[in-house]
Sequence to fold (450 residues):
Amino acid sequence: MNGDGTTAPCSRIQGFYRLPREERLRVLTAFADLTAADLAALDGDAPFHVLDAFVENAVGAFPMPLAIATNFRIDGVDRLVPMVVEESSVVAAASNMARLVRDGGGFRTEVVSDLMIGQVQLTGVRDPEACRAAVLGAREELLALADACQARLVERGGGCRDVEVRLLDASDDDGFWMAVHLLVDVQDAMGANMVNTMCETLAPRIEALTGARVGLRILSNLSDRRVVRASCRVPVSRLSREGMGGAEVRDRIVAAARFAEVDPYRAATHNKGIMNGIDPVAVATGNDWRAIEAGVHAWAARDGRYRSVSRWTVDPGDGALLGHLEVPLQVGTVGGVTRLHPVARLSMRILGVERASDLARIMASVGLSQNLGALRALATEGIQRGHMRMHAKNVALASGASLHEVDQVAGALVAGGEISASRAEALLAELRRRPRPTAAENPLPRAGIA
Fold:
């Protein structure tokens, strides 16, 4: 039974990083009700014929770590979150901050809007107002044409919902440029192919209606009609660390976040930290992380100045730290890699989601958690101390340490406070010169490397 009196699966798993792989898999199996066949996918043995269908000229696969972020409670539901990422400290930071947020009630999310945008470019427009009127006057006809080419989407409750016309700040010798936008409910798909097909289907009719020339016909990755919000609260008592009181840490986090709101150079790095949380979930679930990146960064500059996509403030009532994130997320849970790749399917099983909107809620929450971890580190000890501590195993491996030597070399690097290639090589040489230790001895200290 969980601490809240329920028997639902609990994502609060203490010391998960200390467990051997077999025990981690046992915990994961119990949480997500996985089968032996599910677990077999974790070895990354996707059939080559499947991989070959994804891209041209395939010759093999590129393995990446699939990790599990723990402690997440999102909208009252516990989640274990698969993340595919090669950067040290990302998963640990997300998990640790989710633990703090959990004490404040967990993450709360909201889907603000859930429509994709397709664009039909028009050039050589002589009379912009007449062009706009012609398109909007044929709105019902255009919606019907769009839906007719995606009958199965309409059967599932989706379809083209509206048409908009924008005058662009550009022209040519023949006239102005405009863009016709199709607003499409793609349900649980990422939706690129559906939207592109609608744009290409409607283009001849729009050209006939306006007398203009049609240029490009393609979706927009600035998906500002497919927006999700995540928020959290962290009790000030949970923020204290290493001789620094919770209120001071909170205020430093708020000040660090403010820096990203006013300076685009800082905002770019700030938002990259948020994407450190969002992208690994996108990769794990077979979603297009490049489209997501493009959309979020474009959203950050939507008013003409690049800014942070998160805010951190102080609750005037109890002094808790409040976090808020708002981003466009074009994700899917059906079609393409999401259904074809065995690890992507397994990730969906672990997450326990079927709707794209639920996946977007989880991604936003992980992004906000990762953002909190980066801000807390930056505002207190600095980013390098924790990151390099997590990076110690990589350094040990690069020095030539074997599987049985890595933990000892990494532990000694952390204990000595110098995490460098030269120091790792020296420690490894020292270790190999010494006689093999007994069970009660250890020639080098072991540290808590996650």
Q: What stands out?
A: The chain is about 45% helix and 20% strand. Residues 445-450 have pLDDT under 50 and may be disordered. The chain has three domains: 16-110+226-381, 116-219, 385-433. The two ends are 27 Å apart (CA to CA).
